[in-house]
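Pasting as-is:
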Amino acid sequence: MRKGPGGFPGGMGGMDLSRMMKQAQKMQEDLAKAQESLLEQTVEGTAGGGAVTVTANGHREITAVRIKPEAVDPDDIETLEDLVLAATRDAQAKAAALAQERLGSIAGGMGGLPGLM
C-alpha cells in the first residue's frame, strides 16, 4: 500500500502529521492565553436606564453589583429584583459575546471540537 505524507496510507491531503500537531499545540496555547485574559476583561450589564449595573468578567462571573439609591423603593421590591435580574442577564450575555469574540476564531481553527468553549 502506498504511503503518503506523515506515513499514512493514501496521504493526509498534503499536510504531514508533525506540522499538524505543531499547529494544534499552538492553537491550544493561544486558546489558553485567551481564556486567561478573559478573567481580566470586564463587561457591564445595566437595567432601568442605569439604575442597576452588574459587572462580570469574561468568564461570566459576576464581580460587582451597583444600585442607585433612586432604584430602591421599599414599597416596590419586585421592581428592584427585576432590574437586578435584567442587569445580570445583560452582563452575562455581554460576557458570552466577549468570550465568543476572543475565543471563537481560535477554537474555530480546531475544527469546533466539543468542550473547547
